[in-house]
Amino acid sequence: SEVRLLVQIQRNGGWVTEKDITIKGKTTSQYLASVVVDNLPPRPFSIRMRRMTPDSTTDQLQNKTLWSSYTEIIDVKQCYPNTALVGVQVDSEQFGSQQVSRNYHLRGRILQVPSNYNPQTRQYSGIWDGTFKPAYSNNMVWCLWDMLTHPRYGMGKRLGAADVDKWALYVIGQYCDQSVPDGFGGTEPRITCNAYLTTQRKAWDVLSDFCSAMRCMPVWNGQTLTFVQDRPSDKVWTYNRSNVVMPDDGAPFRYSFSALKDRHNAVEVNWIDP
């Protein structure tokens, strides 16, 4: 079947053809065709669609046409603050009447990371002066820093940068970036963060979840929010018989243990490896 249509606009008293359309093909259901008309005259104006192909006179050919609807398109620059916006234009002939489904892999936010840090190589150069720069990173420490200090989605309206111990986070971040075996003959960062914060929760619960993934604990020391991590470190002090006070019974060290039945030797863990 083939149908020819004219889209016309009335200009200066006469009808002017803006679009000459030919629809050709075969379908067993209703077919929708869209036409974009540019360079419109000042409002109000008249627009019409003329069918140039004669109407079908047989039941073997159904090619009835009608004007279904119109949409006014305002071509201006819009502002979409704090929004990840995607525009897609596809040819309807490739999909027919099916609804086009789309899936997106979100990389994540641009964070504030130390000025001497390279997120691609995960290397820290020189001595950090305490300043930050914007960059993408999935280091869990700097994701946590962003959540604590960001005024829109995080705790930035309650906590300032001076209220968070960035120096403790800097050391923890270096530990998270250390390379460890990935189980396939290569290496991967020790701890990374690839998460979507999609629901509103208590700030302390989210903070605790972030810290637990890094084996650390948030601590308020009276002035700042600092962090203590369970990681290998240098000896702080060595205790032995020569520098401890000897009690009367001559046993300088006393040891206590939990009951044997309370010691677990197997733990079942469910987790996601990104």
What is the structural class?
alpha+beta
Oligomer: single chain
Uncertain segments? none
Percentage of helical residues?
10-25%
Helix-strand pattern: EEEEEEEHHEEHEE
Shape type? elongated
Tell me the count of domains.
Answer: 2
Biggest sheet record: 3 strands, antiparallel
Polypeptide structure, described:
The chain has about 270 residues and is of the alpha+beta class. The protein folds into two domains: about 100 residues, no CATH class; about 110 residues, no CATH class. The chain has three helices and eleven strands. A three-stranded antiparallel sheet has the order 2-1-3, with no helix packed on it. It has a two-stranded antiparallel sheet with strand order 4-7. A hairpin with a 5-residue loop joins strand 8 and strand 9. Helix 1 runs antiparallel to helix 2. It is elongated. The mean pLDDT is about 90.
Task: Record keyword descriptors for this entry.
2 domains; 11 strands; 3-stranded antiparallel beta sheet; alpha+beta; 3 helices
